Amino acid sequence: MEEKEKLFEVVKPQPLVIVLSAPSGAGKTTLCNNLLKAEKNVERAITCTTRPPRTGEADGVDYYFLAQEEFEQKIKNDEFLEFANVYGNYYGTLKKEVFRKIEQGKDVLLNIDVQGAASVREASEKDEKLRRSLVSVFVGVESLDVLVNRLKNRGLDDEETLKKRLCLAKEEIKHWKEYDYLIISASMEEDLNRLRAIVNAERLSVRRII
Question: Which of 64, 147, 190, 193 has its CA 20 to 30 A from that of 50?
């Protein structure tokens, strides 16, 4: 039988590195968890931290729990794609954690703040594989009142902590134009549908398959 002529010569699409950022109260963690449940090829990059494990948390599952000396040595060795000191504890994403998943053909989800996202974008300028994989999404809310109500409804913060979170949120929101996409949070279902639409569109992007 005569072999049919192929009209498109394409390679396997480059897996995605999905950077998701949002101020506290915008629903970022819930959205990340819902995406992981809905998209089986998306895996979370496990973050390193120097804070102690909380009840029910397991090393290598929730976080990689490191001593401060070990974390700082990894900083010196340039092992992190991004890292930050948050309220006295280090948090960071290992390069090998991300690139191992990419090599396995998995899309990687990074739930990080605007500082971490900026570090990843900077790293992508020096690494073609990361640059071709990277897609960034900022999740915002319609107004500050909505953010205040969401934070209060969580019931996790005292008044002083709430003020700090709102002050930080105002600064983080200023960076939304640095991202590829913006989602204004509505319902959990709508947020997930919009994020999945972004992910599926990026999987079909020509720049990922040539």
Answer: 147
